[in-house]
Amino acid sequence: MKIMMFILVIMVAYIAFFRDNEKDTIATSEVVYSAERNNAQDKILVELQALKDPNISQFVSDWKYYAPQPSVEQLSELKIIQQNIKNDKNIAIKYTLKWHNENSLCSKVTSLVGEIECTPGL
């Protein structure tokens, strides 16, 4: 009976140890992946800033405030915006927060809980 109790205690400890290791591994991989997204975003924003256009600079500033640590979706959106700006620098103004506040649907709609906050981007 004592041996079975001892084996049970060891099994519980063993499972607890490996579950903690698994959680640590997941947390570490999430931090690494987040850092990779941050680096990818920084690279894109530096490339855009190098175009030396005031509207692009305003967009970059707005985006840094809006998405300091981008999600996967935000990074995908930024890649699309980068390509669009490379194709036509004049379109950059439409991605700025100022343009969205003046012209987009979010500036004209209020919800039951108040005004909808506009964000830079598409």
Description:
There is one protein chain. Helix 1 packs parallel to helix 3. Helix content is 69%, strand content 3%. It is built from 4 helices and 2 strands. It starts with a helix and ends in a 7-residue tail after the last strand. The mean pLDDT is 77. A two-stranded antiparallel sheet has the order 1-2.
**Total helical elements:** 4
Largest sheet: 2 strands, antiparallel
Uncertain segments of ≥5 residues (pLDDT<50)?
none
Following the backbone from N to C, one meets helices and strands in this order, namely HHHHEE
Mean residue pLDDT? 77
Structure class: mainly alpha
Give the % helix. Answer: 55-70%
Instruction: Calculate the terminal CA-CA distance, rounded to whole Å.
Output: 67 Å
If you compute it from the alpha carbons, what radius of gyration comes out, rounded to the nearest whole angstrom? 24 Å
